């Protein structure tokens, strides 16, 4: 076991951090009931310290009926009993910190669970109704929803309650949207931020960060009309300015989930008095192609430079198709709308590319997000129809496989039941045949494994330090860049092996070089010139 490194003291640790996303339900099951929990995470802290990550981002761990995997929160100040207790979360935050790892929690301000006390009172006719978007319907007897908005999960964004009114939910009906024009909604979230900063967390991930504020008239959505009635409204920036003042008092940081194609609008969230960082979904969605990736990288750096915010590099999370699968398909980009069952996949090819992509993203200037299991090279699983739980699947009428395929419980010990995820009960989502071949214990013994590559890459990565990137001239289909601190990253996408630039040392490569020292297709190398 490697010695844990002390947490970087600098206030700007987040500018270059490697942040590991924990989806608690599927990480490790400490009590054997089939669901991952905080005891499981605590037991695996040595794995995370050995991997060398700087921080953990926990997907929601609060009290929740789990109608959307915890993104339906019933109480922000309580841990779901399936995961543990608040005292245990505090212990985990402290233990991680001792191992040099900071904690980021996930706040879901757009909506709450329909079991949240506010919504229950609202349904009972209480004044809490004003905290949500309740409206009479249109058409005879108000039978039609108040407007034409669609849920992000498919179907109308409105559900009717027994008294005849409708309420808005941009996601599942069990996730009613809050009305951010109401001061009590703002007040409550500011208190929740303080609650978690007081418990020692270093940062907060903001769910669906560009969706909170709605046009008060709730007009129909009309394609191409500006401003959008609920995406990226100008009023949002005022909310995030007040949040920033709270974070600053604790040296805390924010990372926003901001899916916006317009780079100028995206960058507004990262102004110095707003969010520190936001996920880079243009990089995640980009196909495995040299010139398109270079364009995505240049675009990202250009949009961040004027505001002085660091970029983030993301290949995967709990919502998208796992990297090794995506890169092994004919369409290597990511688009929610394009997901379907039975897509042909070449996992060997996808894995080779994912290894190269790991070295590419870890060499770029900024922070990197890893999603649990990415370090094990886990593929997307095809979940048998009867076992799927994700509302996206059901609301698509069963055509969309949903997001469970990237949420399968992790394999830890090849020879143990359920590949070491838990013990007594079967995991909440089935692990596919052959899952134990990916087990962490087996990979730790194999220098050619994905886990060994990630460990080595995170060990060497500080050599790249901070500072700008300079593109080097390279043949068609090859990306090569140098970082200010010295090291160079080369990735070959072309089908002929590429000559490496003259170098004094090969730091690391994602796969073997050819016998004459050239870089094969879909392979990356880190060099000192
Ligand atoms: O996702 C918000 C989001 O916009 C997408 O990632 C979403 O899955 C997609 O748009 C569906 O069309 C966040 C969380 O990451 C996701 O897991 C939650 O389901 C969602 O918010 C609701 O809280």
Automatic annotation (TrEMBL):
Task: Give yes or no: UniProt keyword ATP-binding.
Answer: no
Q: Which Gene3D superfamilies match?
A: Glycosidases, Oligo-1,6-glucosidase, Domain 2
Give the UniProt keywords, A-Z. Glycosidase, Hydrolase
What processes does the entry annotate via GO biological process terms?
A: oligosaccharide catabolic process
**Record bears the keyword Hydrolase:** yes
- Family matches, as SUPFAM superfamilies: (Trans)glycosidases (SSF51445)
Enzyme Commission number: 3.2.1.-
Residue ranges constituting the Glycosyl hydrolase family 13 catalytic domain according to the UniProt record: 21-407
**Pfam families, per this entry?**
Alpha-amylase
Q: What GO molecular functions are on record for this protein?
A: alpha-amylase activity
Read off the PANTHER family from this record: ALPHA-AMYLASE FAMILY MEMBER (PTHR10357), NEUTRAL AND BASIC AMINO ACID TRANSPORT PROTEIN RBAT (PTHR10357:SF179)
**Which family, according to the similarity comment?**
Belongs to the glycosyl hydrolase 13 family.
Q: What is this protein called?
A: Glycoside hydrolase family 13 protein
Q: Record the organism.
A: Streptomyces sp. R21
């Amino acid at each position: 076991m490697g010695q844990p490194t002390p947490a970087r003291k600098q206030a700007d640790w987040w500018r270059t951090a490697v942040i590991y996303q924990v989806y608690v339900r599927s990480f490790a099951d400490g009590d054997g009931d089939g669901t991952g929990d905080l005891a499981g995470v605590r037991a695996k802290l040595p794995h995370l310290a050995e991997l060398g990550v700087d921080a953990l981002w926990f997907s929601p761990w609060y009290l929740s009926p789990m109608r959307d995997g915890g993104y339906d929160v019933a109480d922000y100040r309580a841990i779901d009993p399936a995961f543990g207790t608040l005292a245990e979360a505090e212990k985990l935050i402290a233990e991680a910190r001792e191992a040099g790892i900071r904690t980021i929690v996930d706040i879901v301000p757009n909506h709450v669970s329909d079991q949240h006390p506010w919504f229950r009172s609202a349904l009972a006719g209480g004044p809490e109704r004003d905290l949500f978007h309740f409206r009479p319907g249109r058409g005879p007897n108000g039978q039609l929803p108040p407007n034409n908005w669609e849920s992000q999960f498919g179907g109308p964004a409105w559900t009717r309650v027994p008294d005849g009114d409708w309420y808005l939910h941009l996601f599942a009906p069990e996730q009613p949207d809050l009305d951010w024009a109401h001061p009590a909604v703002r007040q409550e979230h500011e208190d929740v931020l303080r609650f978690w900063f007081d418990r020692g967390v270093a940062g907060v991930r903001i769910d669906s960060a560009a969706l909170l504020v709605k046009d008060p008239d709730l007009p129909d959505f009309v394609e191409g009309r500006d401003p959008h009635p609920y995406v990226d409204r100008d009023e949002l920036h005022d909310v995030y300015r007040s949040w920033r003042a709270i974070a600053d008092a604790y040296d805390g940081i924010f990372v926003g989930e901001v899916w916006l194609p317009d780079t100028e609008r995206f960058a507004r969230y990262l102004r110095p008095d707003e969010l520190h960082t936001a996920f880079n979904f243009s990089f995640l969605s980009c196909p495995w192609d040299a010139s398109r990736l270079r364009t995505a990288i240049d675009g990202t750096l250009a949009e961040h430079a004027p505001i002085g915010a660091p970029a983030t590099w993301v290949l995967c999370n709990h919502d998208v198709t796992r990297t090794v699968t995506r890169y092994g398909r004919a369409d290597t980009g990511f688009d929610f709308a394009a997901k379907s069952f039975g897509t042909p996949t070449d996992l060997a090819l996808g894995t080779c590319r994912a290894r190269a992509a790991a070295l590419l993203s870890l060499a770029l200037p900024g922070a990197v997000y890893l999603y649990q299991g990415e370090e094990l090279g886990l593929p997307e699983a095809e979940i048998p129809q009867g076992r799927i739980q994700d509302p996206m699947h059901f609301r698509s009428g069963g055509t969309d496989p949903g997001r469970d395929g990237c949420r399968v419980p992790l394999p830890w010990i090849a020879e143990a039941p359920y590949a070491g995820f838990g013990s007594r009960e079967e995991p909440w989502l089935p692990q596919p045949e052959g899952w134990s071949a990916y087990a962490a214990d087996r990979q730790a013994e194999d220098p050619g494994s994905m886990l060994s590559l990630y460990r080595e890459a995170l060990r060497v990565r500080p050599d790249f330090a901070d500072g700008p990137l300079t593109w080097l001239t390279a043949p068609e289909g090859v990306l090569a860049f140098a970082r200010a601190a010295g090291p160079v990253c080369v990735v070959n996408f072309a089908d002929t092996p590429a000559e490496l630039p003259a170098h004094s040392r090969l730091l690391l490569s994602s796969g073997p070089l050819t016998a004459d020292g050239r870089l094969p297709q879909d392979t990356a190398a880190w060099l000192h010139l």
